[in-house]
Design goal:
The protein is of the alpha+beta class. The protein is built from 21 helices and 10 strands. Helix 11 crosses helix 15 and helix 17 crosses helix 18.
Amino acid sequence: MNFFTSPKNSIRVATLPEWLDWASGNLPNDCTVELPMIQRGFVWKPLQIIELWDTLLQGLPIGALLVTELQAGAKSVPLMQQQNDVQQHPKVSPRLGLVDGQQRTLAMLAGWPLPLGTPYSLRIWVDFADTPRSGDMLRLRITTRNQPFGFGRDTPNTKLSLTERRKAQDEWRQEQEKQATRAAERGASAASDSTNALANFDQTRPYSGKSSLALDLRDLLHLWHKGKGQPEKWKEEVLRLLKDIATLGSEAKIWDSLKSQDQDLIAQRIDTLATGLGRLHSAEVPLVRVDGRLFDTAIDDTTEPPLALLFKRIGSNFTKLSDEDYVYAILKQLLPEVHHMVNALHGHRFAGTRSPSVASLLTPTDLAMSALRLATAEWNSGKERKSADPENPTKEEFHRLIRQEEFLKGTFLPLLTEQKMQQWFGRVLRCIEYRENDGADAGLPRHALPHLSRPLVQVLLRLAQIDYLGDAEAEIDSTRRSDVLRLVLYWWLCVTDQHKASRIAYQVMEESRSDTTLDLGRQIKDAIVKESASLELQSPEIIFKRFGLKHSGNVEKVLGWSRFAAKPNDDADHRLCEFWCRWWRPWSYQHPILLWLQR
């Protein structure tokens, strides 16, 4: 059975509850909603989710959704991400691929009742005791597994301050201890020792620093459905739940401490929400059919794949994709193994390192782009005519690359399926991370890894790929490790053009590949200085003398002084000035010199 009544019909209008039940899996026999391989992950921020739900409650339109009817055997990704593996279904009808509207749909599902056992990582709360933001119907708050006490009350995209998080955690622990004590008095055993436990996402509420009467929107909607949309009974039940909320660490009810005018205001907000839920359940959403031929992955010598055209059209009218997102999306559609590789690497824990995964170094998109670049470097190796280095490829450069015969299947695919990326990341992390057994170790602390740029990480991966960092099991040679760490620290402090420096580094490694006994880190540094992609190191003494600066004490005793052993370039004062400004960065709170001196 086709979802659209006939091939000529390009639009089907569904009620919003219908769509959300299909998308959530509440009605699997009616329709299933999945993500084509081209789709990226959920990227919306809390404020966007709040504004969308306020739009729904106010009865405003949210726009059309683009869907395609997936054919039997078509690969897809679960919308709700109950599992990470790519799906390859037998003939199931109808199956919808959500082409455009993923962010809106997932934001709506954050507050929609889900099938029992469905994992979720985000909750939406209605705080009936708090004044709504200007223009909003109600005060909505967001909590996530990473931020179990929510975000700023007036700045929903901002994390709570450290003081607020500590206070919220302390209050939560005190409440858990009191509940355990009360359970023990009733003869029941405590579920766990809550003294040192981390906040349980399923048991926390958004922190506001004052009395709060917050209820989970998903629970409120479940009550609405249970009462079959009878507003009066639903309002009575919500009021009962609000009256039962106690002050943290106390048996006293918050409702009893409120003034009568505040209680009346809360009752009005319950009425407001009931009206909004009525609007939501009567809302309709147009589903626009996307022709399945646009998902043809055949690569023609003269034109882009049809999918590329689809993305261009979507990008011109909806959320525009960056070149990187576009490349990642096309790669997933052409080779679903890319999706497997990204998920596996982001969840893999490397033995012998303190870092949990490559998530500290690269995002999923950056990871796919890095794999593409490493494959191209191997493809070019030893060839007279070389493809352009896809350090930061445009859509056109990407398509010229993948049109080459056997590139995707013969070079790129083995890179993803033989665990090569995992091996190279393991070598890089073992090389650059700090080693606790040596207090003077120059390795990078764990919290510094996310600050390494993608161009630099790709250089380190290439060093691992050409075996400069040793094989998978053996310990890296100490001389080479020092050479690589010097390059990383120099790059952090002095490189001014990340992309250009990275391309030069790849050229140096290709030219020196026949002899990897050389100090490649120093060669790369010399080359990027020569090509003006970075600054030459300057000692503090030279800077002091050149600009007539004064200092107190013995400069020779300054920590890290000897590491600035570089001769000045007398005919390049402007380079000295540039280094001085980059060193101190008076316009920023990020000072590269601090990491340099700490190492």
